[in-house]
Amino acid sequence: MARALEPLIVGRVIGEVIDTFSLSVKMTVIYNSNKPVCNGHEFFPSAVTTKPKVEVDGGDMRTFYTLVMTDPDVPGPSDPYLREHLHWLVTDIPGTTDVSFGREVVSYENPRPNIGIHRFVFVLFKQKRRQAVAAPPSRDHFSTRNFATSNDLGLPVAAVYFNAQRETAARRR
């Protein structure tokens, strides 16, 4: 399992966004292009305008999860002083289903990086009980770590990220 975390360490997701954790749940993130999100792969912003299908395979229907999608590179990776920006938050996702069965607390906001290559991180947490997660006050200056602590979520159980950068008109063709 340690090898599965290597891309998250190399991509500085572990360290800058979350702490080291044990990967214990299978999470699959698929955008409408039927292309699964793999750590470090690049997606064009035009390919991620609608929320992805996120499948959770962990436990049973009595186990609930929270999904956080965040951009730690706002406004740009060389000076991310607005770190992090919350793009999506879904809670009460039953194990062995997908996010459509959960409660969308913060609606999906499609990635629109302006400067440099941004990382868009999906982090899955196991909830201790249902309807126990509170909405953050703002999308800006979000902290995945602080959010997990204040909602008693503990360490993540799964995470994956992709890269995206601003598209020029020529790249969209």
Any key phrases for this structure?
single chain; 173 residues; alpha+beta; two-stranded antiparallel ribbon; 14% helix; globular; Phosphatidylethanolamine-bd_CS; PEBP; PEBP_euk; Protein SELF-PRUNING
Could you please describe the fold and organization of this structure?
With 173 residues, the protein is α+β, with helices and mostly antiparallel strands. 14% of the residues lie in helices and 29% in strands. It contains four helices and seven strands; from the N terminus they run ααββββββαβα. The strands form two sheets. Strands 5-4-3-6-7 form a five-stranded antiparallel sheet, with no helix packed on it. Strands 1-2 form a two-stranded antiparallel ribbon. Strand 4 (85-94) and strand 5 (103-106) form a beta hairpin. The radius of gyration is 15 Å and the shape is globular. This is Protein SELF-PRUNING. Belongs to the phosphatidylethanolamine-binding protein family. It comes from Acorus calamus (Sweet flag).
Quick summary:
This protein has helices at 2-10, 13-16, 144-150, 169-172, and strands spanning 26-30, 53-57, 64-71, 85-94, 103-106, 117-126, 158-165. By secondary structure, it is α+β, with helices and mostly antiparallel strands.
